Amino acid sequence: MALPRITSPHAKGGNRTQGVMLQVLLATLPGVLALTWLYGFGTLINLLWASAVALGCEAAVLAARRRPIQFFLKDGSALVTAVLLALALPPYAPWWLTLIATGFAILFGKQLYGGLGQNPFNPAMIGYAVVLISFPLVMTSWPAPHSVGLLEALQRILGLASLPDGWSQATALDVLKTNQSLTLEELRARYPGFGGAGGQAVGWVNLAFLAGGLYLLYKRLFSWHAPVGMLAALALMSLVFWNGSGSDSNGSPLFHLFSGATMLGAFFIVTDPVSGATSNRGRLIFGAGVGIIVYIIRTWGGYPDGMAFGVLLMNLAAPTIDYYSRPRTYGHRKAERGFKIGE
């Protein structure tokens, strides 16, 4: 009988990986509810569709590799990838966009490297980056807050109904990036979605994901180092380069902390234990690097938000960060630099 080759993590008392994944899914509920309340049923449809695609792709690869399908699907990692990706996509993204993003996330971001625990990059961010680069117009077209019924939402996702005039609007980050002549007060008056901390709607969404992230911290599913490092670096960068409320403003620290995918990225993406740094000091450096890159792309780059690129670039740097931030072995002193003549 061929025994399944099961890699780490190992734990006594049941499937710890499955328990962790369920807690992460539970923590996304405030964000899911906020998105559904603001934009209608589009987010829920995307979640179900992305989950079905993720499970189907994972099962197909496991069958091709002759691995136990039920065992690996039960760990919940594919569902977490699908849910995080669906939450990052626009609420009424076309069905084919979600299919491409989720398929790339599972096939090229996870299974290509051997499955859970062996992927050097965050799978959800790989899928997101692929569709962002390939279909930038669709990815940056978010709807204005509307209450949309289930049938109407399904028709728009399937492409069976055209979008009415005024349905979509630029995000707060996009409005600020493309602004050339209006002050922040004038932007708030002209673009209702720009008002408040990072935009009224997206500000509430970020608060919801912040609540879910604090729940995960309370449950000690990850340490505080990576999210605090990212949020502190993003706030510091926006404070240093904040040039008031004129037409050339880059946005305040509060604006950047509650815009885009900041809180989703800080508590659900940079805390990935596989593709991130491993030591506490390394996690601080990793999170800070993501925050700096996100601000650079938001302010001077070609995309309104840079969360996916920031995470993937720091995934590349994670092995180097681990090498230089290894904790000193207990009972040993630090190695002295140089050597004495005659040694």
Work out the helix count: 17
Rg over CA atoms:
21 Å
Main sheet makeup: 2 strands, antiparallel
Q: Report the mean per-residue pLDDT as an integer.
A: 84
Structural class: mainly alpha
Our measurement of the CA-to-CA distance between the termini, rounded to an integer number of angstroms, reads 57 Å
Subcellular location: Cell inner membrane
Organism: Pseudomonas cavernae
Subunit structure: The complex is composed of six subunits: RnfA, RnfB, RnfC, RnfD, RnfE and RnfG.
Keywords: Cell inner membrane, Cell membrane, Electron transport, Flavoprotein, FMN, Membrane, Phosphoprotein, Translocase, Transmembrane, Transmembrane helix, Transport
Summary of the model, kept short:
It is found in: Cell inner membrane. By secondary structure, the chain is mainly α. Helix content is 59%, strand content 1%.
Task: Explain how this protein is built.
- The chain is mainly α and 343 residues long.
- The chain is built from 17 helices and two strands.
- A two-stranded antiparallel sheet has the order 1-2.
- Helix 3 packs antiparallel against helix 5, helix 3 runs parallel beside helix 6 and helix 13 runs antiparallel to helix 15.
- The longest helix has 23 residues.
- It is globular and about 60 Å long.
